[in-house]
Specification:
The complex is a heterodimer of chains A (485) and B (167).
Chain A: E1 3-7, E2 10-13, E3 23-26, H1 29-37, H2 41-49, E4 59-66, E5 73-79, E6 86-87, H3 89-92, E7 99-108, H4 109-112, H5 123-135, H6 151-160, H7 162-166, H8 173-177, H9 195-202, E8 214-223, H10 226-232, E9 238-245, H11 248-268, E10 281-282, H12 286-319, E11 330-336, E12 338-345, E13 348-355, E14 358-359, H13 370-373, E15 378-381, E16 389-393, H14 396-401, E17 405-406, H15 416-423, H16 428-434, E18 438-441, H17 444-449, H18 458-467, E19 472-484
Parallel strand pairs in A: 3-4, 18-19
Antiparallel strand pairs in A: 1-2, 2-3, 4-5, 5-13, 6-10, 7-9, 7-11, 8-9, 8-19, 12-13, 14-17, 15-16, 16-19
Chain B: E1 7-10, H1 11-16, E2 28-34, E3 38-44, H2 47-62, E4 72-80, H3 83-99, E5 103-114, E6 120-130, E7 144-145, E8 151-155, E9 158-166
Antiparallel strand pairs in B: 1-2, 2-3, 3-9, 4-6, 5-6, 7-9, 8-9
Classes of the chains: A alpha+beta (485), B alpha+beta (167).
């Protein structure tokens, strides 16, 4: 692999062999060391992506790069439909349109955490944690029955996204303004979604999922950029809620269905695959169009899922006694980190795949809500449950270098089994309580697997992103309550 | 790329669940622990036994205390152009039964046939228990089996496979 050091945090992999274009990645010394220690396995994955037809230079990875199946996590790749460009279901991932939504209110930390972390036994805070946990199921074993949704409701959700739920009273019209693509991808085709996907989705709308999905009540503990923070409505001490969830079983099923179809199509169109999970079909082919229609439908389900979780979060806050006007939670932003979208970059329309990468449009972009347009879109980078998460802003650097993309999270550094082993003999729930963080989870295994030490430090990812100019640090958020599926 | 790069072997998981290699069974499950995903390697004397090992490995992945008996019955019929795809479909079918229908397949009678050059078909009769999230020690959802590094081979009469799951 021929790696060129371009600038302090930027590297280029010069094309060789079957690569059609160069690849590029962003890394600090520490991140580079991690890549070296895995013998550049994740970088080899982005080189495989750079071999696909119609790929636009360069194929990229963000600073939170890690090894995935097929595409690396943190991968960004644009394809030109006019140049035989392809769409790859594996390049979007199983959890289509998985993403994060940040809510904010005028509540301050002292309202939710009067003893500032010294006393987790505060009854109101315990009440809030318990109510949130009861109101937002993980979705396995017990699905969501209180909405009474049937297949017809789901069909509308797949076309209208978050708006279909606002129309049913689960939220406010204003919520939609602050969601990427206003919570709805156009050209969704609910008929391209299999019966099994519907079956999996109908009771899972409004459920969190398991693994790294979560809901956190947090507070703003540091501001890095006053001007942007003001535009976002963030100030020190304010309470926020961060929701991380996706398209649940419906999205997983859509991906399964179309990976297989695209594998057959790749064979038929003579697309050579270094890895079968990279299965792809030309964007303009019937198979490519069919996937894009079904993917948009699953994406709309994910937007709607986060909308419904928002509704039940608001309800839980009210039930826990945070029921005044000032306590109302507004949507600061909702963005996706697993999708493929048609966007204009370099004067042409390309299909940008983001697999574990966040859209990060810079200042002036007309797609952004007016209130954020002058400063760039909020970019939400969750960390692990014991430390912190970050809010960044999209930059011009991201627009010119990364197809308007940035990092999406901390990235694991420890396998799940290894984490459980490391957690043996420890009471992580208690350890978190000692740090002032209340955890509610379905089981101990989830807490152990998701322990802080299993993740890289999000601060390193965020600092690298900031210093490479593909995202600007705005604020840091610390957890008070963590709900895991 | 090194075949097992990025993986850490974890035989202890198999041992914990009481399903390490035994001379009587002559089959083996080796759990793989990758930073972002999980998976397993399987070995068995017959193709059918290897597919059944995949079921057992799946239960070991999703449950701390997989049920050992059950009264419910179900059946599965699948076909696929090749054995790799058949294995992915089989695992995904079982994931659906567990996570979607709440049916945990504790025993499977698997039959696989080559369908006249048209690929392979699988029929399985399943006995299972109802999903008990707390009782079975639910470990978290599986999104899907993947085609990444998927491999099914037969070497000197021993069937082997490697599967990576997205969790």
């Amino acid at each position: 692999m021929n790696i060129e050091h371009v600038s302090e945090f930027k590297y280029r992999i010069l094309k060789e062999g079957k690569m059609r274009v160069d690849a590029a990645f962003y890394a600090s010394e520490g991140i580079l060391e991690d890549l070296r220690s895995e013998d550049y396995a994740s970088l080899k994955q982005i080189c495989n992506v750079a071999m696909l037809p119609g790929v636009v230079e360069p194929a990229l990875t963000m600073p939170d790069i890690h090894w995935g199946y097929g595409f690396p996590i943190g991968g960004v790749a644009a394809f030109d439909p006019e140049d035989g460009g392809v769409v790859s279901p594996g390049g979007v991932g199983f959890d289509i349109n998985c993403g994060v939504r940040l809510l904010i209110s005028e509540l301050s930390r002292k309202d939710v955490d009067p003893s500032e972390g010294r006393l987790v036994e505060d009854p109101q805070r315990i009440g809030l944690a318990d109510t949130l946990y009861e109101s937002i199921p993980s979705g396995v074993g017990k699905g969501r029955k209180d909405t009474g949704f049937v297949r017809e409701d789901l069909e509308e959700v797949l076309v209208e996204g978050a708006g279909a739920l606002v129309g049913r009273g689960y939220g406010e019209p204003k919520d939609l303004e602050n969601i990427e693509s206003e919570g709805r991808l156009p050209s969704a085709n609910p008929k391209g979604v299999s019966n099994r996907a519907y079956q999996r989705g109908v009771s899972q709308l409004g459920t969190l999922g398991s693994g790294n999905h979560f809901l956190e009540v947090q507070y703003v503990d540091e501001i890095y950029d006053e001007e942007v923070a003001r535009a976002y409505g963030l100030s020190e001490g304010k309470v926020t809620v961060l929701i991380h969830s996706g398209s649940r079983g419906l999205g997983h099923q859509v991906c399964q269905d179309y990976v297989e179809r695209c594998m057959e199509a790749a064979n038929r169109y003579g697309i050579e695959l270094e890895d079968r999970q990279l299965a792809a079909a030309p964007i303009r082919s019937p198979e490519g169009k069919a996937y894009l229609g079904a993917m948009a439908a699953a994406a709309n389900f994910a937007f709607a899922n986060r909308q419904l979780i928002t509704h039940f979060t608001r309800k839980a806050f009210r039930r826990a006694g945070f029921d005044s006007e000032a306590h109302h939670l507004r949507v600061l932003y909702d963005l996706a980190h697993n999708n493929a979208k048609f966007e204009e970059h370099g004067g042409r329309e390309v299909l940008v795949h983001r697999k574990g990468a966040t859209r990060a449009y810079g200042p002036g972009n007309e797609e952004l809500p007016e209130r954020y347009r002058s400063v760039g879109q909020p970019v939400l980078v969750p960390g692990d449950m014991g430390r912190y998460s970050f809010v960044l802003a999209g930059t011009e650097g991201a627009m010119s270098e990364t197809f308007g993309s940035s990092a999406h999270g901390a990235g694991r550094k420890m396998g799940r089994r290894a984490a459980k082993k490391a957690a043996k003999g420890r009471n992580l729930r208690r350890e978190l309580e000692d740090k002032g963080i209340l955890v509610r989870a379905a089981n101990r295994a989830t807490i152990d697997e998701e322990m802080s030490e299993a993740y890289k430090d999000a601060a390193e990812v965020v600092d690298t992103t900031d210093r490479a100019g593909i995202g600007k640090k705005v604020a840091r958020l610390r957890p008070l309550i963590v709900v895991k599926g | 790329m090194g075949e097992h790069h990025g993986y850490k072997s974890a035989f202890e998981g198999a041992a914990e669940a009481g399903s390490q290699t035994t001379p009587a069974r002559d089959a083996m499950i080796r759990m793989l622990d990758h930073t972002a995903d999980v998976g397993f390697e399987l070995k068995a004397p017959t193709l059918e036994a290897m597919f059944d090992e995949a079921r057992r490995a799946l239960l070991m992945t999703v449950f701390e205390r997989p049920p050992r008996s059950g009264e419910d019955e179900d059946s599965v019929r699948l076909s696929a152009p090749d054995l790799e795809t058949l294995l992915v479909r089989w695992i995904n079918e079982l994931v659906f039964l567990i996570q979607g229908d709440g049916f945990v397949p504790v025993h499977a009678d698997v039959r696989i046939e080559e369908s006249g050059g048209e690929g392979f078909s699988l029929e399985a009769s399943l006995t299972g228990a109802s999903l008990d999230v707390e009782g079975h020690g639910w470990q978290g959802e599986i999104k899907s089996a993947t085609f990444h590094r998927l491999d099914v081979t037969n070497e000197s009469g021993c069937w082997q496979a490697q599967v990576i799951l997205d969790v």
